[in-house]
Specification:
single chain, mainly alpha, about 75% helix, about 450 residues, binds phenylalanine, 2 strands, about 0% strand, 18 helices
Length: about 450
């Protein structure tokens, strides 16, 4: 058997894991879900969930991956057997579902690169922008074609494997995205009328918290951290034995959270400055940003570069989603990497069709007040915390101190918070997640 490929460096791993975490979840989903759920109070809940469950479970997943050097299904099989591998299967299934709608949204960013260059959206008339956007996503050819194009790009990177594909792309592009984001935040918060948006975003109004706010916030925390479906188990499985896990986990969580907070600062003040509706839903980022670019010197270029980087951020996340499925097919089903990639891609495209066509092309794909795509996204808000719930139980009660040894490299790396970490995995995370999920249903 070939030796398992490893990341080239610690920086490479952290960038790849951060690349998985930072994606559409931060820049497309976070601002609109915050807008829909009343602003500041939602932000606070999201941050609380990241701090309470997020950090500990990120570390747990990375450790499971490194310890077993396996995909999520194989990892649970190797460590425990019984019914536990079902948690791995749940992860793989969730991966398919997320990827199926992820490629649709990411496809929109491809169209936006072209729109920026052609000047199609170079206007401050937001109703015109909204029009162009709804026409784009409501078609029946382009939404599908763009999703396929994005899927092909994802396949290209994943076929290249770990070091040459995933790591090399993440190392350069993630820092570039960050710089771009800062520029846009500066533009947005200095717009006349931005204060109202800042207040909406930063001053919590607790009367806005309901059961569904809780589900949305925990779902967002997990989605954004790529947590609860084995993506981090998979990435951890390519880590070499002497990496320091606690530091890497903190870095990834910190970067991801920072990017989400910045994305909120980029979108929400502009939404208020231009009197748009913060509760507009999935189109929010796509309708707000063009107005901001239209008001910037060299906005066309900035706009193009921004959507190109958003494309890349989505790509590095999609790559990690696909990698979960591919690692499972390669490790457990004995497929070659190439045929695993192609099989997974075809299934995802087929699953993605109803999402792609649910934005106006096929009326029957809108039911119960929302589109098929909304339903798919909402389902993952439940599936990911559920995966996290089982992972926490597994880590707390089945692995326990064995995983503490793994995290601390058998005592070589200081892990002062080991006791607290174990307590979180045993009690706080399972009880907390269960409570939030139940409260969301009530
Ligand atoms: N974290 C990614 C984002 O924010 C999405 C993702 C979820 C990636 C789960 C992998 C696993 O866009």
């Amino acid at each position: 058997m070939q030796a398992r490929e490893n990341w080239g460096s610690r920086f490479g791993f952290v960038m790849a894991a951060a690349g998985s975490a930072v994606g559409l979840g931060n820049i497309w989903k976070f601002p609109y879900v915050t807008g829909e759920n009343g602003g500041g109070a939602f932000l606070l809940l999201y941050l609380a969930f990241i701090l309470i469950f997020g950090v500990s479970l990120v570390m747990a997943e990375m450790a499971i991956g490194r310890m077993t050097q396996k995909n999520p299904v194989g990892a649970f099989k190797a460590l425990a057997g019984g019914a536990w591998p079902l948690v791995g299967y749940l992860g793989v299934a969730t991966g398919f579902i997320i990827l199926s709608f992820y490629i649709v949204i990411a496809g929109w960013t491809v169209a936006y690169m072209v729109f920026m260059l052609s000047g199609e959206l170079a206007t401050t008339d937001s109703s015109q922008i909204a029009n162009t956007f709804t026409t784009l996503i409501g078609g029946s050819f382009w939404p599908v074609a763009l999703a396929v194009i994005f899927m092909l790009a994802t396949c290209g990177v994943v076929i290249g494997g770990i070091g040459k594909g995933i790591e090399r792309a993440s190392r350069i592009l993630m820092p570039a995205l960050f710089v771009m984001l800062i520029l846009l935040v500066i533009r947005s918060v200095t717009l006349p009328g931005a204060q109202e948006g800042l207040a909406f975003y930063l001053v919590p109004d607790f009367s806005k918290i309901t059961g569904s706010t809780l589900t949305a916030a925990i779902g967002q925390a997990f989605f954004s951290l790529s947590l609860g479906m084995g993506a981090l188990i998979t990435y951890g499985s390519y880590l070499s034995r002497h990496e320091r896990l606690p530091g890497s986990a903190f870095m990834v969580v910190g970067l991801d959270t920072l990017v989400a907070i910045l994305a909120g600062l980029m979108i929400l003040p502009a939404v208020f400055a231009y009197q748009l509706d913060p509760g507009a839903g999935p189109g929010l980022t796509f309708i707000t940003l063009p107005v901001v670019f239209a008001q910037m010197p060299a906005g066309t270029i900035f706009g193009f570069v921004f959507f190109a980087l958003l494309f890349v951020a989505a790509l590095t996340s999609a790559v990690s989603l696909l990698e979960v499925v591919v690692a499972w097919l390669v490790d457990e089903k004995g497929m070659s990497r190439k045929s695993a990639v192609l099989t997974a891609a075809l299934v995802c495209i087929a699953l993605g069709l109803p999402s792609a066509l649910s934005q106006g092309a096929v009326d029957s794909l809108v039911f119960g007040g929302q589109s098929f795509l909304d339903w798919a996204a909402q389902l993952t808000d439940i599936l990911l915390p559920l995966g996290g719930f089982f992972t926490a139980l597994f880590v707390g009660w089945v692995m326990g101190p064995r995983l503490v040894d793994e995290i601390s490299n058998q005592g070589e790396v200081p892990f002062k918070l080991a006791g607290l970490w174990l307590f979180v995995c045993r009690f706080i995370a399972p009880l907390g997640i269960a409570w939030v999920l139940i409260a969301g249903f009530l």
